[in-house]
Amino acid sequence: MGVVARPFVFAWHFLTAIPLSRAHHEPTASELAASMAWYPLVGLLIGGGLALADLALTHLFTPHVVNALLIMLLVLVTRGLHQDGLADTLDGLAGGRTPAERLPIMRDPRIGAVGATGLFLSLLLRYAGLMALPQGLRLPALLCMPAVGRWAMVTLAWASPYARAEGGLAASFLTHLSSAHVLIATGALAAGLGLVFGVPSAFVVLLCAAALLVAVWAGCRQWFGGITGDTLGATNELIEIVFLLLMPLLLWFL
């Protein structure tokens, strides 16, 4: 497997439940970092699958059913990885007053009342965002939504320290993560946004996503002392949902 192909396969296998290769490949720390550069491309491919599913399902079901099925498909394809991170992050925020108290709570496999409620509300907001999308924006938004969320994870991971001194799942990804990987990820996202929305709209979306990401970065530093795998998953969910909710408003001004 080539130097470029291996990191892409690792990114695909980590972010989706669909295997590309039956062979077991042990990634190095540098390959794990390099795989993050491909996250937005994997997001675009996931979004492409959602767009194709939307086109097919629209002929069979009402919009309400189609939107529910699209959300279910997204959760299945991604194994609910980011939803789990969101629930754990909310439980940590609700259950502790300091980073030292919050981080152990986030490692508890059980979901608390706040995490479960937040997860339900996030799915509800995602559904509302899909329902509110104008028809002309629907397919472009479905295509780019997963890419925007995964770009946010890469950028936040690069800009933040790891919160756990003892290490964790995300630590191995961040050891060799560099600005070059972030630039590649940003270029892939910008190309996808520019292709479907046009350059001016792509610039606005990137600018708004970056502004929101600064706020998330500040919150992670204050509340957790940095980032973890859970906070990265929560960031993906937050960015995707805000993207859906604000897309009609952002593009209305252009």
Please give the number of β-strands. Answer: 0
Largest sheet: none
Radius of gyration: 18 Å
What is the molecular shape? Answer: globular
Q: How many domains, as an integer? A: 1
- Element order: H for helix, E for strand: HHHHHHHHHHHH
Strand residue percentage: under 5%
Instruction: Return residue spans where pLDDT drops below 50 for at least 5 consecutive residues.
Output: none
| Helix proportion range | over 70%
Mean pLDDT, to the nearest integer, reads 92
What do you see in this structure?
It is a single chain. It contains twelve helices and no strands. The N and C termini lie far apart (44 Å). The mean pLDDT is 92. With 254 residues, it is mainly alpha-helical.
Describe the protein's topology.
Blueprint: H1 5-15, H2 29-36, H3 39-57, H4 63-77, H5 81-95, H6 99-107, H7 113-132, H8 135-159, H9 171-174, H10 179-197, H11 199-224, H12 229-252
